[in-house]
Amino acid sequence: MINLKHIEVFHAVMQTGSATGAARMLHVTQPAVSAVLKHLEARLQMQLFARVGGRLVPTPEAHALLPDVRGIYGRIEAMERLAQDLAGGRLGTLSVAASSPVTNGWLAKAVSEFLAARPGVRVALQSLASPQVLDRVASREAELGLAYEPVLHPEVVAEVIADNSVACVMPADHPLAARAEIQVADLAPYSLVTYLPQALLRPYVDRALGQAGIAPAIAVQVGLSITGIALAYHGAGIALVEPQLLASLPLPGLVARPLLPRIEVRTLLLLHRDAPRSRLLEDFIAHIRERRPAP
Fold it and tell me: Do domains 4-58 and 69-161+267-291 have the same CATH topology?
């Protein structure tokens, strides 16, 4: 029968890529890890790792098992966190996953303020793409997620936590920077920086540009808002990105102007439908509701 020790060792090897790394992570010896791994492969009657140049390379079968192992591991970690919260009240650990612009923008400040009042609390904060945030919450690897819509998953409940919109980020001396608002059609003569075609927000940008009847001169396509903001700072073009990061970490000489018609971006708070919610988690949810950016 497979036991939790098998799962723990498998998970550690998948994370570190070697028996030595897994042993260091688990605070055991390398021969102990190798023995457990060998026993697991014998139980499953399949090879999980190929030994290549001192590394353990996962087989396709190992990759197929990983999502279920993550789910089990996530539930174990959730149980440990709950026990810590029950024992200590203000002690415990929060696991949070959020979309990159949210993590590096207003959420970073909110987490810092929350910890300042709770020195015994620890937070694991992951910056991920929105689909990955949903996956972490669904598998209970994260207690709470903040991601852009749309979000559809039977095991995850979502509520709107913030309404924002894509903006025009540009140098303060740009010809359009003097305007309080910028119409999409006004962008026609200028080079643009915006998201890659596969990015979650790109279809919204394309739709707005298409409805304005302009053929955009997209100079650079990026995966992250912060990259677009950096490119605008260095003069690559007007960045059409979600601007909350700039509001949290202003760059001298760079401004953001509202784009009309608005390209709305809704940030959703995600929780697992069946996961227990500690007092610490409830307090954190209340805190970020108070600290969320104004529309």
Answer: no
